[in-house]
Amino acid sequence: MSKEKKTVVLGVLGVDAHVVGNKIMAHALEEAGFKVVNIGIFSSQEDFIRAAIESAAEAILVGSLCGHGEMECRNFRQNCIEAGIGDIQLVVGGNIVLGKLPWPDVEKAFLEMGFNRVYPPGVSPKQVIEGLKRDLEKCREPAAGCGP
Amino acid sequence: MSLALLIDFGSTYTKIVAVDLDREEIAGYAQSCTTVQTDIMVGLRSALSLLPPSLQNAPYACKLSSSSAAGGLGMVTIGLIPELSAEAARRSALGAGAKVIKVFSFKLTDREVREIEQINPDILLLAGGIDGGNSEVILANAAKLARSRLTCPVLVAGNKASGDDVVSLLRAAGKVPLVVDNVMPDVNVLNVEPARAMIRKVFIERIIAAKGLKKAEEFVEGILMPTPTAVLNAAQVLAAGTGSEKGLGDLVILDIGGATTDVHSVGWGNPVQAGVVRKGLPEPYAKRTVEGDLGIRYNAESILKLCGAAAIRENASLPHPDLDKKLECLSREVGFVPDNPEDHDLDFALASCAARAGMERHAGTIETLWGPHGQYFLQHGKDLTPVEHVIGTGGIFVHHPLADGILKKSLFNPGQPFSLRPKNPHLYTDAQYCLFAVGLLAERHPEIAFRIGKKYLKKWND
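Predict the joint structure of the above. Result:
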């Protein structure tokens, strides 16, 4: 496996057993040429961060399907900074909140938490992958970081 | 009559087992004190002289041995994340029969390097990063080790993309690097076998001579492995069986000694209940753990500290009014052999505590979580509840009349339903002290080794 392949960590955060979207996303990312470290369901923030360090990943893709995303994702960026990978690209998607909040408010809340990309329910894997590719290219430009 | 001689140069005793390969039976057993400080052969000759005369100068078709003399195989392991590559490295070393003296993770500090120099391990295992993953930390650690005073072989088993650079750094500084496949090639993927095999090779080629055991090699064909590996080998051959005979299947061996308690399990330990999700680094199929604080002589006082006087008394039938004093004596007089009911009872209580704590640490656990859709169960480690065979080995299981009682204490306890210990297994003891011999013999004659192992295990229940 060449290092030219970009490595991403994928998983479902918190007490959340929704595995189908996770498998589809993993498959789509691999098809698109990424090296996917899929840590699966019931993963904690620490699981994501540890996997990202061992694999020198360029992005963490957090799935949250049970509606507790706002609580589960709290301090994710701070914890990455603390672990020495503060510049990593952070992406979140799924059913990240319960209730009928306007999407711009939800997106804003997660961007303020330090996520680089926030995706609503129903987004296609293709959109996520295109966004990821663009963002990671940008990160590779001199003097650019992916951090918040 | 074709004979095999199997020898274990133990830390305290040199044990020998003579096996009649044609009749498939044990022809003789003897032991004497290990004499590694002076001349290893003195103890061996003394043990040989205790065999029946017909076996003393008999022509042996093979002479094989294991050793844990002179401190055993001392290792230090280094990884990146404690729960990932550092844990994978530790498991590799344990499975290779090593005594893992300390595990380090992340970038080593100067102080830690000094500490490793003081430990002065026989082998250092350097891991870190999945293949194609983090290389910064393993390179930094290699650079630090290159500048150290360490002379032991360094097994490099980390990110393969940094392997060549790590080797160059170490070799340029006059160290002895040996590269094998990554112990954790991907996150949550364990690959312990290549490192285990290399550890064994280094043990045979370098460590034996370094420990003054070379002399013994002139008598035996070779010191093939550290003693714990011989026991783990026996566990594997008993579980797997041979081409023509079915093995016992998944099993656990509990080895309670004076200084440590080793637990060996063979089996994948996958969840047996519906709805349980397995998490964390996978477990090796043949897994060994060593509890350095659970031993019924050197560590008698540490059992007291760990389990408490109440737990010791609960496992005893007699009152033992001077428990503290008695345990202090035991940890000094490590060769003590009980000769009255009170001392036998105390040994039973200590071994029961060690058996329970050792099995508890080895077995997997269930973590319960509540989510929006109800309760979820996560399994960490192996589920040993369906294991059908538990075997006890070590002096206590040879000599104690209630040996099965000790094994029972290690089993599943409904009061701790989330500790996945064996529920209702057949119980056996290694009454002839021959498991190490079975593991050694399996190198040459696996079928005979399997049948002898089965034949000489003492079964305590149906």
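The mean pLDDT of chain A is 91.
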